[in-house]
Each structure stands twice: as C-alpha cells, then as structure tokens.
Design a protein that fits this description.
Helices cover about 10% and strands about 30% of the residues. The protein is built from 13 helices and 111 strands. Strand 85 and strand 86 form a beta hairpin. Helix 1 runs antiparallel to helix 2. It starts with a helix and ends with a helix.
C-alpha cells in the first residue's frame, strides 16, 4: 500500500470520526447539519485531488541500496569454481551512508557470487568473437538533433557490432571477464560516413536515328545509357529515350500496313498414338521369307548402333507455333490480309526434356587413414552413386556423384601409424681451411693443419617404428594361422623375437616433418705440441758409466739438457738429451776445492814463506755433496805454498779465479786453455826486500777440457706402427680382436757428431733409449650402410596415342659410417637405376560415337493440315548412341568418361529429309592438296544428286555453289627475342640429387661457366603467336656466361720474429706478413692491414730477455804507470788500465764478443783507475770487497760497507789505513726498491699450423728497480716478493667459417602459364636458396644473389571464345519470334590486355575444356524478337559502364564499386507510344572502381550561354553536378537571409560576413552573426583593416554539416590604415606600465617587512614571508630569500 493510499484512508477516517462526534452531540438545527455535510464532501474531494495529483518523485523512497564493484575472482583451481565479493551498503538519497535497517531487506543485492577463475592457459581456449558491423545510422537519429536540410559531403553516422567472449572449440558464449583478462574488449561502435544521396547519372544522347518511315509521318529516336544507378536514396533515372516526329515526304501509292508476325515455339509435346494406322500397317506386312530375313539382320545391325541403356531415355516430340497478321498500330488482322507472305513451317521435331536421375548412395568406402595417431590429420572416406538417366533437352543437371567426409579408423585392431624421424650419418673428418698465406696453388702440401674447422654429415629420413609395425603384423599373421590350425606356439611371442641391429631404410625426405638436424658443425683438431728443450748444461767430470762396476771401464764426460715443453706424441719426437765424450781416468767421486785459507808463515814468523790449507768437499759426478769417505781413493788437494810479504818486500795480489775454458774439447789443432792473473800492489824497497816478479810471472795458463772433440749420442728413429705381439699373433690367427694391446718398435743407433753412425759401444749404455713399448691397437670400424630405399615412382602420364615416354626409377642407400683400420669396405654401388616397366595398357578413357539413327519427322497426322507440308520430307531430328571406351577399345562404364574424358559429344542433331522439289547435293569433298605453301589455291567440290541435276533452280551457282576455292595456307614464321637476359645459371649436377636424403650442404663457392637465357617468341605471317617449335626453337636463346669465382685474400708467410726490443727485462718482438693479392668476387677478406701502406700485417707480442744473457768481461789490469814517481821508492800516484768487452754468456761462461750496446752500460766495469802505489814499508791493503746490500727500505737511515785486509803490514810504527768504508744508503743512488711489473696480454697465439681455435695468450713478469730500470728477476726473487699473477691463459681465435648455403630450390611454376607479361616480357621461373650458416671471422662471406630467375618458354594463349550474335532471324517473315546464333571458336593471343586475339584452327584448342570464361554451358542459339513495323520495343543492353567507387573529396569510402547498363525504348509509330514498355537498367558490383568528380561547364555561343555537366574524365553527363551551383540559376536561399551581417552563399546557405560567426537555431537555421576576436600582432607596415577573418573550412558547406568546427581565426592590427598606432595600443601600454609599478611596489613592501621582522628578532622572522590582502581579498605571497635563517645570518 502506498503513502498516498494511507493518507487517503486517514482522511476518510477523520471524516468518519467527525461524523460520529456530530451525531453524539446534542441535536442542532437542520441547517447546521446540511452545511456540515457539504463541508465534509468538499474536504473529501480535496483530499482525493491532492492524492491523485502527487508526482512520482513524491513517492520515491528515501533510502536505497548501493553496491561496489566486484572484486577479483579467487579460488584454488582454475575454471568456474571461484568466487568474488563486493561491498553492499544502504545510502540516503542525499548521498550519505546510513544503517542497513533503513533499506528494504528483501531487495538487498547479493555481496557474493560464483565466478570463473582465469588462468594463463585459458588464453588458448577463449577469444573474442567479432560480429559484422551493422548499417551506418545517422548520429542525429541517436542524439535527437535535426538533420541538415542539404547534404554536401555526407552525414556522420555510427555503426555498431556485437562482440562477445566465446569458447574457441564450440563457439559457446562465455563471460566477458575471461577474455578481458588477456585482451581489452574490442570496440563496439565506430564512426562511419553516410554518403549523400546520389542521383542517377546518364550519358549524353546519341544522335537522332533516321526516320522510321520513308514516307508519311514517322519517328526519330535518340537514346542514352545509365552510367551510375541512383544510390543512397537519390532520384530515379530520367527517360533514356527522346522522340520526335519526322515527315520525309508524302507516300506515293498504297502503304503496306500489314505484316506477318511469327509466334514462339510451344513446349515440346509427345504426339498422340494412332493405333488404327499401326494396325493397318501390320496387316499389310511382307510375307517373303528372304525379305524378312534381310529386314531382321538390318534391325539387329541397327540395334547395335542404338543405345539400349536407360541412361538416355530419348523421346522425340514436336513443337508448334502460330503465325498472325498484324496492323502497324499493333492490332491483329486476318491472314488473308497478308497474302504477299508465304507461310513458314508450323511444326518441328524436338526432344522431350528429361531430368537427371541417380541411384541411391552406395556404402562408404574404407577410411583412407588405417592407423591410429591423434596427431595426424583425419582420413577421408567416399561414397558414390550412379547415373540412371542423363538429362536431355535442358532438364535438371546431375548432382554430385561422389561425396567425401573426414573419418578416423574404428575398432581396437587398428595399428599405430608409421612415424618418421631424421637420422644422420657420422660426422666427417674435421676439415680446416687453409691459411690465407697457404692458398698458393703451387703449394699442394696442406697437411698438418690444425685448430678450428668444420665437419659435415648427411641427414636422411627413416621410419622410426618400422620394427614395431613389422612385429605387430607378424603377430597378426601368426594369430590368424594359429586360429586356423588351432595350435599354440611353443615359445611365447615376446620371447621369440630376435632383433638385428641394422640401419633403417631411407624413405622420402618429405615424410619427416620435424626440424631438420644440423648438417654442419664447428670442430677442432688439436694442434701438435712441438718438443722444446733447454740449452746444454756444462760438461760434467770424467766418470764411469756405472759407478757400481768400475773395473776396466772407460770413462765419459756427459752433458745434458731437459725437455721444457713436452710434445703431443710423447718424448720420442724430441732430440737427444744426452751427449757423451770419452775420457781417461774416470772417477765417480772427486774433491771439490772451495777455497784456500789465509797464508800462515812458517816458523811462526810474521812474514815470509808459508802455506795455505785447502778447504774441500767430496762430490759425486752430479755435483752433489757426499760423504768424504767416498773420495778416499781420490788424490786430496795438497796445501799450497804462499808468502806473506814483509814491509820491504814486493807485494802481489792473490791469483784471480781461473777463466772459463776457451774450448769444450781438444784436438790436434784446438786446445782448451784457462788463465788466471795477479798484479803488483806495491814495489819492493831498494835494498833488502823481495823483488817483484817479472810480468810473465803475473799470468798463469793451464790446459783444460783435454778430452778429444768426439761427441757421441744415441739417435732414435720414429716409432713404427702398432703391431700384434708375435706370441699373440698365433693365438689370434683365426679371429682378430678389434681393440687390443700391441707393441711398437723403433731403431736406436749410436751417432758421432758430424760423422754419422758408429758402433753402439762408443756410446754410454746408461742413457740408451728404449727400442720397444706397448701400444693400443686401433679399433677396427666396418662400413655401415642403410638398406636400399624403395624404388622411386615412375611417371604415370601418357602421351597421345597411348605411348609412354621412357623414364627411369632409382633407389639409393646411404653410408652411415666409413670403414677404418682394416674394417670391412663399403660396397661400390650405393645408387641404382633401372628403366620403368611399360604397362600393357596406357590408362585413359574416350567417348565412342555410333551411327546416327534415321531422321525423325513430326508425325504426318499432326502436320498434314500445315500449308505446303509433305508426308515424307521436311526438317526433323536424329539421335545416336554414345559409349565409353578405354584407349585400347574396351568398353567400360560411362561414369569413367564423365570423370576422366573430355566433354560428351552431342547425341542429337537437326536433319533434313529432302522433298521432291528440293535440291539435293553431296557432301563437300576434302580440299585438294597444295603444291607448296603460300603458292596457288586449293579447291573442294560437291555435286547435284538425282533429279536435282535437271532443275533450273538447282543449277543456280549463287544459291547452290558446287565448288569452293581458297588460297593455300601460308605458313611463314618469324622468331624474335623478348624480355631481358636471365641470371647466369650454372649447369645442374643431376648426379648429386638425392630422392630420399638431404645432400650435405655445400659452401658458397659456386662459380665457373654457366648459361643465361632470353626467351624467344614465334609469330606466323598474320602476327599470331604460335608454338616456338614452328620456328625451330626450344624457346630460348642460350649464351655462355661466367660466374666469377671468389678469390680469397692472399698473404705471405709470417716473417721470423724480430729480436726482443730490450736486452734485459720485458720488451716486444714483431713479425709481419705482406699482402700478395687482394680479395675479389666475394673472397675471404683480409685481416686489418697497416693503416699507413695498407699492405702489411703486423703481430706484436711481449718478450723478456734474460738480463744475464750478455755480460761485461774485463781483462787483467795493466802494470801501474806511476805519474809522480819516486825514483828511489817506486811509489806514489799511478794509473792502471784494462780492456772491457761485452760478451755472450753461456753455461760454459762468456763465449763470443758482441756489440757493446747489448750489455747494460751502467754495469760496465771501469777501464781505467787511479791509485796511490804504496811505498816500501807502507801498509798494503787488498782490493776492496763488494759493498754490502742496503737494508730495506731505503730511507737514508741505514748504511752499507765494504772491507779490505792488510796484505803487507807496515813498519816503523806506521799504521794501516781504515780497512772498512761505509756510506749512507740513499734511494735510487746506491739503494733501490724492487717490484714486479706485469705486461699486457699478448694476442692469442696459435700453433704454427693452426688457423683458429684454442690458443694461448701470455704476459711477461719483469723486475723493475725503483728508478724504472728493468733488472734481473733474481733481485725480486731474493726479496721474496709475491707472484700472484698467472702468466698464461687459454684463449680462442674465431674460426674463419665460410658461408654455407642450401641447395637451390626447384624452379617455381611459371608466373604466366601462357603469353607475355607486361612490358612484353616472358614469364619467369624463380628458384631460391637460404643461408644455412653465416660466415664467421675471416670466412668467405655470403653472396648477395639468393634467388635466380630464367624465362619460361612462351606458349600461345588459346581460349574458346564466342563470336558476336547474329542478327535476329525469322524464317521468311518480317517480324516476330526468331532465333539468333553464334559460334564458339578457338582464339589465340599473347596474353596482353590490348591483344584481343585472333581466330585459329579448332584443333589448337583440342586440349582445353570447352568453356568460355569459365562457363561450361555453351549456348550457341538463343530466342530473339524482331520487331514488326510500328512496334515499340526495348533495345539490346548497353555495355557495362566504367566501374565507379563511392568517393568523398577523391577518397574512396568503404562501399562496393558499381557499374550499370540499361535498355532504352525505341518507338516507330507516333500512335503506338502508349504501348511502349518501360525502360530497364541493372547494376552489379565490380572491382577497382575510380573516383569521378562532376562540375558545371559553360560556354558563350553568342546567342545564349550553354551550361552542361561534365565528369572529370571529360565525358558529358546528366546528373552528378550539384543543382544549386549550376551557373545562371537563381540561387536564392529558401529562408531569406535577413539577419545583420549575413548573406546567401552560392550553395543556397545563409552565412555570415568576414569577422562574424554563425549562431544557429535548433532547426539548423541562422539565428544571428556574432563577432569573435582572435589576436594577431602584425608588422607596422601591414595595411590591412583592423579585424580580418578567414574560414578554416570550405565556406560553401552548410553550417549544420560542420560538427565540431574550430571557429575562425581573428587578427588584431595595432596599426591603422594610415600607419599610425591606434588608441587601444596606448591604453594597453599604460596598463602594462601600471601593472609593472604595482609588482615592484609589492616586492619592496615585502622585503621591507622582512627586514623589520629580522631586526626585531621575533621568531616569526624566520619565515621571511610577506602577505598582502588586496581590496578584493586576493592574496599575494612573496618569500624573501635574504630573510631565511636569521640566526645564521646574525652569526
């Protein structure tokens, strides 16, 4: 119950209560009671009126439920099991939230619902389904706005479509949220344009026809055709015909007003049988037996020629037609009024139409897929039905005789489908490309290459589960045999299987659909490591070979060297490591003299003669210290005599150490020597002292290395092949183990250096190398080949005549593993080929036609009343039988010919039985032969038969010619080239083709001699394209060409490494290559050349030179040369000199002198020294020792010292000088810090024969002194500095991989099956190749040509084409229903658009299906109407107009282009115009429409202005031009433009003047013109008016057609027309000045305020902000930067 109802009830209750109160009170007067009742009635009516007039808003509830958006769908599983929730609350109408109890609970929305939880994999199951766009609807219909009164460019519209989320599999609709999870919902609306209504457009009128009459009053006609039909509600087409009367002149005599009109043929009808007539014929039969027999045999023969099958149930009927006499006004008259016309035939034979009749469908065939595999596509099965009755005489055609449907094999017994997979052969040996420096053809030896390379393999396809399918097949066969014999196998089937490990049989490669495995890969051949040995050590002492057996043995001196880099194949390839020299007096242990102790004078004297005791060690032959007992058999060094000089004696220095031996051995001419020296330190006194020795006594020589120079060593030969041991050979004589242990031997001989082989006893036995070692025999590998593939299929096509071209089939097997190490060799034959077997009968079908049956006339009883007809002659119809035969003549079912043969030959034809008065002639003979082409004529003849020879009309050669003559055919042919030359194409290598495998992909180096082709065309004498064979050409001009072979960059060999740039420490060494030949034609590029001369390639690597490699060697000091000599004493200041040389240091000591620059100049000893020679009785000191080493660090706080000792003590109380000297250790003067220095990495160094691959990069460690000088590493090593660097690291050099390409694909189909392409070029065939592996590094790059083309043979384009329709023919009458005819002929063209073709012999189109423009229904005859004199009739259809698109401003809209054609009316009599039919037009969609524009054209002829409409292509039309813009028309606006500043435009619209804009009413009419200013600041020289306006869009457009227009552009000019500034400019300038003064004042006030606050020191001063409230309460805030942080500024 509503609130109004409650209020009404309360009002009624109030009235009732008032009544009760009135009744219960004391009685009153009757008058008061009446007034009270009247008041109650008025009150009730007022209440009811109030209730009824309340609005629905008054009854609206105050509270309602509000809901939030649904949350995310949650759930544990994907799919429809999720749930989502939302917020629900109660709200007041004013928007605030209240308690739930205030809202009605029964209407509360749900806050939870089930949902579909979307997961990522749902993307493959759901998708948006987009519907088609609906019709474009005007926007005005949706918005309610008024539509424009006139359309100029179209109307804006909106079109919608349906979009929904569906399940892909079934299309079932789903929740949109599922699809929105992956992709936003596509738009449901889009803008569209509704074109303006397009009126019908017609062409110009044709010229007037001639007068329809030659005399009297007739009509002339002129017609036009429809070019564009009315579109989008445009006006209909105007009349296409105009008439005017004409009067050629008065008629003389009587005008013929009657004509004979022929009616159309009736439907074909079977004649009614005449049984009485047939009975009468049977009674009068022939009784002669011989005649009967002859007739019977003739009937049997005719039966064979008759089609007995029910396929053709041919029934011959008849048709009739009427002939009437008509008046010129169209009325019908009696035939007697047309006596001047002979009546035509009124009846003719015809075929009864029969529809096609088929049998019921046969059963389905077996499924083409006989195995189970859901991943393979479905199979198909078919069923068919037979034709029981062929259609005749236009009956319904036969439906499809076969239908196909997909299927899957049924039942559990279906085997699994065969699966196919790729198999590969073993990888070939790794092949390394030669170095760029090794590509000289004269250098054929390219062995030893190593590093990175490439290896290939072959890929072929096999049946993966062939064994399983064979096993299942065998199981099935075994089960069938067991079920027949009812026996059980003795062994379970699964246990009786024996598999033979063999390679699978190759199958055609297209069966494998998986990704093809790689056929090439990078590989690496390890580079052999060369053996490297250290230098020879010094010769050892003379020792026994075996110290344990020293009896009677000779001795040897040995020197050794070690292997520093072990080679790849073992140490056998290293040079000898020990050399021996025979010697005498060998000894295994010797005393080693360390030094002599100080000289001790004898007899405990202070000076004089004495002895020195030697300090010795016992060492073995290897220099190791051993127990002294072992040297007991060796002579111990004796104490040496010495002398301690007395004060007056001559003082001599100690002997120096013996120099290194000058020779390593001795001979007759060469002897090793050692030398030591001493020098005079002080001369003796004149009297009493020991004299100084002479100079010869200061030098001592001794022999050394007295052993002869006969060096022996063991020399080894290479290891022999690994052979079986003789003991194992006997046991393995029958079977050889593939991999077992064997032995290797080598030859070891004793060699004397520079002599040759000597007996083995000359060499020491202990270092003799071994001659035999065990080895592993190489594993034998047999050749593995696949079985032969199946034979390839033979070509099944047949040429004409049933002959089959000879073709071959092939098969192959693939070598999977090549033999090695004596394994079984591969078979010689891997490819086999054989001729295909020729089938006995070439498959094919043809139609066989039988003899025509007799000509069947319309029955006589039907046509006997027809004027001029005779019983036994006239036109008729005859039929014949057709059967289907194989090419060998065997009869087969007719359905085979329907499938595989050409179109069926006709089974009926018209015939004519001649009457007695007819002229009868024989058939034409064949043309006579021509003697030669292009010369003479040829003829054919026929003759009159019977009585026709005597009839005069038959002798008329014009009507019945008896001979025909034509010129002999002139077959002249002309060949000419067309198009461009093709690419240069190399001959194809047919032997490399593989039908079952994939050929190993070759490199990109394909070059040499090839051929290029240019197409040839052949024309006959009529310039018709013919087969190229006519011109004795195979269709090409062939020309040899050369594809240049790529030539790689060629470099020289590396030069030798240069000497290290430093003699001590780290330096660099360099080697180089020279460019010998640059690359061309895509050869391998050169490495980066030197940027200066572009010809040399450098390689620089770091190196380290041993700092002790070169040493300074000083000779003994010379005798003193005293400069201040005391003749008595021979002492004083003196000078000594010596010679210093730089020498190469070896293990045996300095050997050869070298250039001084190789030694360190800072280390060069002094060659001169000055010294004071002690006088007698002076103290004589020894030579100063070396300075001690400074203690680290060199901080100036440590000292170093050197010492000397007194050799001669002084006398007379004299003192010896200081024997110890010290000096402060100063950095970089006498004290140095040392550190390691690491060089940069070198380039990646490969083996000498390696091209690429793994290598080694090195860096050098150098010891550097603190002053930057490189010194020997021992200085850093002695300090124990940490070596934390790796000196070597592995690296990889990118291998130069050449580009590898796939094989060329097969040639594509020709781009043109026949004829020429545009620009008169032949069609093209293409083939392509792809990059299998791109080039890497310095490899040969890929060629740019990845596709090739060559022309196709140009074949003529033959087609069937109709001839034009003949004129409408009506037999012997003027008008009526007739027939028109045309022929179908063979035409040839060159395929170009401008070539319409020429007619040729029909034999040339024999191979084509009889169809015209794809239509197999050949129509050569059609009914037509020949108008009678005075008839008004329709013309033939005009040609189709040009295709025209719907365009706006030259842009095509999304509407289908159209073209039209029309039929105009032709009238002949003025009085028959009302009987004319309506004109007709029709349109059809077309492609590639054009955009046309239409505009009015005018011309002044002097008399009047001509105005017409013209299309943009120059054709004059009617319609299309806007009618309101036609010149000369009054273009006044429908609603007068009476608003201020408005005018009427050329388009008939009210627009505003420049400077004003239109304000429209809701109806789209002009309401007012309002000015709108938009500023522009021009230059002072601009003389324009103050305010100008220019339209942004076309001003001729109606305002209502311009939604969303941007308005107009306005310009304010500061200068007036006189060039002076206008007044408002001064006002603006003054306002700007006032504003500037105001802003400056405000800034000043704000800063002053900040300064005052800061001076007062109030806490608020930290803000630094002034606020000014303007008169209109505008707040201006300014922040003073200087006022910030007053405390900081105060400090």
């Amino acid at each position: 119950m509503g609130r109004n109802d409650i209020f009404l009830l309360r009002a009624m209750g109030l009235m009732a209560e008032s009544g009760r109160r009135t009744g219960s009170s004391s009685s009153s007067s009757r008058t008061g009671s009446g007034v009270l009742s009247l008041w109650k009635l008025v009150l009730l009516l007022a209440v009811m009126w109030t209730v009824r007039t309340q609005t629905p808003e008054d009854s609206k509830p105050m509270y309602f439920w509000e809901t939030g958006p649904w949350g995310r769908c949650m759930g544990s599983e994907c799919g429809p099991g999720g749930s989502q929730s939302r917020a629900v609350w109660c709200a007041h109408v004013e928007g605030w939230t209240t308690l739930h109890t205030n809202c009605q609970q029964f209407g509360r929305p749900a806050n939870q619902q089930n949902c579909f939880r979307v997961c990522d994999w749902h993307k493959d199951l759901y998708d948006w389904q987009l519907g088609q766009w609906n019709q474009c609807v005007p926007v005005s219909l949706r918005t309610g706005a008024a539509r424009p009164a006139m359309c100029s460019q179209g109307e804006e519209g909106i079109q919608t479509r349906e979009v929904r989320c569906v399940l892909k599999a079934s299309g079932a609709p789903s929740d949109d949220a599922i699809c929105e999870y992956f992709e936003p919902k596509p738009r449901l609306e889009q803008a569209c344009l509704i074109p303006c209504p397009q009126d019908c457009i017609v062409s110009q009128f044709t010229p007037w026809t001639s007068c329809s009459k030659t005399c009297g009053t007739g009509l002339q006609n002129r017609v036009r055709s429809v070019l564009l039909p009315p579109l989008f509600g445009g006006s209909a087409c105007p009349n296409l015909t105009e008439f005017q009367t004409c009067k050629p002149g008065p008629c003389e005599g009587r005008d013929s007003v009657f004509s004979l009109r022929m009616g159309g043929w009736s439907n074909c009808t079977l004649p009614v049988a005449r049984p009485t007539r047939q009975a009468r014929r049977r009674k009068g039969g022939i009784k002669d037996p011989e005649t009967r027999k002859l007739i019977k045999s003739k009937r049997n023969r005719n039966r064979l020629n008759r089609q007995e099958s029910n396929l053709w149930d041919i029934q011959v009927g008849y048709q009739a037609r009427q002939v009437t006499c008509v008046h010129r006004n169209g009325s019908t008259a009696a035939l007697s009024l047309c006596p001047h016309w002979s009546l035509p035939t009124m009846f003719q034979s015809c075929l009864m139409p029969k529809d096609c009749v088929t049998s019921e469908w046969a059963g389905w065939s077996a499924c083409s897929k006989s195995c189970l595999d859901p991943n393979l596509p479905e199979g198909t099965r078919t069923r068919s039905r037979q034709v029981q009755q062929f259609p005749t005489a236009g009956g319904a055609e036969c439906p499809a005789l076969e239908e196909t449907e997909p299927c899957e094999p049924q039942g559990d017994g279906s085997p699994p489908c065969a699966t196919y997979s790729w198999r590969t052969t073993e990888w070939t040996d790794c092949r390394v490309d030669v170095l760029l420096s090794q590509q000289d053809r004269r250098r054929s030896n390219q062995t030893g290459l190593c590093g990175g390379g490439l290896q290939t393999r072959e890929v072929f396809c096999v049946q993966a589960n062939a064994e399983l399918l064979a096993y299942l097949s065998n199981m099935k066969d075994s089960a069938e045999l067991q079920s027949q014999s009812r026996q059980t196998p003795s062994v379970p089937p699964l246990l009786s299987i024996s598999y033979e490990i063999t390679a699978s049989r190759p199958v055609p490669a297209q069966l494998c659909i998986a990704l093809v495995p790689e056929t090439s890969q990078l590989c690496h051949i390890p580079c052999p490591i060369e053996c490297e040995v250290s230098p020879w050590a010094a010769w050892g002492p003379c020792t026994f070979e075996n110290c344990n057996d020293q009896t009677g043995k000779k001795g040897f001196k040995l020197r050794k060297r070690e292997i520093t880099n072990y080679p790849t194949g073992g140490v056998g390839s290293c040079p000898h490591l020990v050399e021996a020299i025979p010697c005498d007096d060998p000894s295994c242990y010797n005393w080693k003299l360390l030094k002599f102790e100080d000289c001790v004078p004898d007899n405990q004297m202070k000076c004089g003669a004495g002895t020195q005791v030697p300090l010795v060690l016992c060492i073995n032959s290897d220099g190791e210290t051993v127990d002294k007992k072992l040297c007991r058999d060796t002579l111990l060094p004796l104490p040496a005599a010495c002398e301690v000089p007395c004060p007056r004696d001559c003082t001599i220095s100690p002997w120096t150490a013996w120099t290194s031996c000058s020779q390593t051995c001795s001979s007759k001419t060469v002897e090793g020597k050692q030398m030591r020296t001493r020098s005079i330190l002080a001369y003796n006194a004149g009297e009493g002292g020991v004299l100084c020795p002479n100079s010869s006594m200061l030098q001592e020589m001794r022999s050394c290395n007295e052993n002869p120079c006969t060096v022996y060593h063991w020399q080894t030969g290479p290891w022999g092949p690994c052979m079986e041991e003789p003991s194992a050979a006997g046991s393995n004589a029958s079977t050889r183990v593939s991999c077992s242990m064997g032995v290797q031997t080598r030859k070891v001989i004793c060699v004397r250096v520079n002599v040759g082989q000597v007996p083995p006893k000359k060499c020491p036995e202990s270092p003799r190398p071994e001659t035999m070692r065990p080895c592993l025999l190489p594993c034998k590998k047999d050749c593995i080949v696949t079985p032969f593939s199946e034979w390839s299929e033979c070509l099944a096509n047949c040429e004409s005549g049933g002959s089959i071209p000879t073709n071959k089939q092939s098969r192959k097997r693939i070598v999977i593993q090549m033999p090695s190490n004596g394994g079984q060799e591969c078979p010689e034959v891997v490819n086999e080929e054989r001729d295909c077997e020729s089938p006995a009968v070439c498959p094919g079908y043809r139609w066989k036609t039988h003899k025509w049956r007799r000509c069947q006339l319309v029955p006589w009883h039907i046509r006997q009343d027809s004027p001029g007809s005779q019983e036994t002659c006239g036109p008729g119809l005859q039929t014949r039988a057709v059967s289907c035969r194989q090419l060998d003549g065997t009869m087969v079912d007719v359905t085979q010919c329907l499938k595989f043969a050409s179109s069926m030959p006709p089974i009926t034809q018209l015939c004519q039985l001649p009457c007695q008065d007819d002229c009868q002639l024989t058939n034409w003979s064949k043309f006579s032969p021509c003697t030669s082409d292009c010369v003479g004529v040829r003829t054919r003849r026929r003759a009159l038969v019977g009585k026709s020879k005597k009839r005069d009309k038959c002798k008329n050669s014009q009507l019945f010619p008896l001979s025909e003559t034509q010129y002999c055919p002139c077959d002249k042919y002309n060949a000419q080239p067309v198009g461009n030359w093709s690419d240069c194409i190399l001959p194809e290598d047919r032997s490399a083709e593989s039908p079952v495998g994939m050929k190993v992909l070759g490199e990109a180096k394909a070059c040499g001699q090839g051929y290029r082709y240019q197409a040839m065309v052949c024309y006959d004498q009529d310039n018709r394209l013919v087969e190229t064979l006519r011109c004795n050409s195979h269709g090409y001009i062939e020309e040899a060409c050369i594809i240049a072979c790529p030539s790689d960059c060629k470099l020289s060999e590396w030069s030798n490494w240069s000497r290290c740039s430093k003699s001590c420490g780290s330096g660099v060494k360099v080697r180089s290559k020279w460019l010998r030949e640059k690359p061309y034609n895509g050869g391998r590029p050169c490495p980066k050349l030197d940027h200066i001369n572009q010809a040399q390639v450098y390689e620089v690597v770091p190196c380290v030179s041993d700092c002790s490699q070169y040493v300074w060697v000083a000779e003994p000091w010379s005798m003193w040369k005293v400069s201040s000599v005391d003749l008595k004493e021979n002492c004083g200041e003196g000078v000594q000199t010596r010679k210093v040389r730089c020498m190469l240091n070896t293990v045996d000591g300095p050997s050869d002198a070298v250039e001084d620059y190789l030694c360190d100049p800072e280390e060069m000893p002094l060659g001169t020294r000055e010294y004071r020679l002690p006088c007698p009785e002076d103290c004589v000191l020894s030579v100063w020792s070396s300075w001690t080493r400074c203690r680290m660090p060199c901080d100036g706080r440590a000292d170093r010292e050197r010492t000397a000792y007194a050799i001669r003590l002084p006398s007379g109380g004299r003192q010896c000088p200081e024997t110890k000297q010290t000096e402060v250790c100063l950095l970089n003067k006498n004290c140095y810090h040392y550190s390691y220095n690491i060089t940069d990495w070198s380039t990646c160094q490969l083996s000498s024969n390696a091209v690429c691959g793994s290598g080694l990069k090195t860096r050098m460690l150098d010891c550097v002194r603190s002053d930057g000088k490189s010194v020997d590493l021992k200085y850093c090593e002695e300090l124990g500095l940490e070596k934390r660097w790796h000196m070597n690291a592995s690296c990889t050099v990118e291998c130069p991989v050449n580009c590898q390409l796939s094989d060329w694909s097969t040639w594509t189909e020709c781009s043109h099956a026949c004829g020429l392409e545009e620009l008169s070029s032949a069609g093209r065939m293409w083939r392509t190749r792809t990059v299998i592996r791109a080039s890497q590094g310095d490899g040969r790059p890929c060629p740019s040509q990845m596709e090739q083309w060559k022309p196709c043979p140009v074949r003529p384009c033959y087609r069937w084409q109709y001839s034009p329709w003949s004129e409408c023919r009506v037999e012997e009458v003027v008008c009526g229903e007739g027939r028109r005819f045309r022929n179908v002929s063979c035409f040839v063209s060159d395929g170009l658009r401008e070539d319409q073709g020429s007619m040729v012999e029909e034999e040339l189109c024999a191979g084509l299906e009889l169809a015209v423009d794809g239509d197999k229904r050949i129509i050569l005859e059609a009914p037509c109407t020949l108008p009678c004199p005075g008839d008004c009739y329709l013309m033939e259809w005009s040609d189709w107009s040009p295709c025209q698109s719907v365009c706006v401003k030259g842009e095509r809209l999304d509407f289908a282009p159209v073209q039209a054609r029309s039929r105009a009316v032709i009238a002949q009599e003025p009085q028959n115009l009302l009987q004319c039919p309506d004109q007709e037009w029709e349109s059809q969609p077309c492609a590639d429409g054009e955009c046309f524009e239409y505009r009015w054209m005018s011309a002044d002829t002097g008399y009047a202005d001509l105005v017409w409409c013209q299309r943009s292509d120059g054709i004059n039309v009617t319609g299309g031009c806007p009618p309101l813009s036609q010149p000369g028309l009054d273009q006044s606006c429908d609603v007068p433009c009476d608003k201020p500043k408005s005018f009427c435009s050329e388009a008939g619209l009210c627009l505003c003047e420049e400077g004003y804009t239109e304000v429209l009413t809701p109806e789209g009419l002009l309401d007012q013109c309002t000015p709108i200013p938009v500023l522009e600041i021009p230059t002072a020289g601009d003389k324009k008016a103050d305010v100008k306006t220019s339209r942004a869009i076309d001003p001729t457009l109606p305002t209502t057609a311009q939604p969303g227009r941007t308005g107009r552009i306005w310009y304010l000019q500061p200068f007036g027309p006189d060039g002076r500034l206008k007044t408002w400019v001064y006002g603006v300038a003054a306002g700007v000045l006032v504003l500037l003064v105001f802003v400056v004042s405000m800034i000043y006030i704000a800063c002053s305020y900040c300064a005052i606050r800061r001076s007062l020191g109030t806490p608020d001063s930290a803000n630094g902000t002034a606020v000014w409230m303007g008169q209109e309460a505008h707040e201006l805030t300014y922040t003073c930067p200087e006022c910030q942080h007053p405390a900081e500024s105060a400090t």
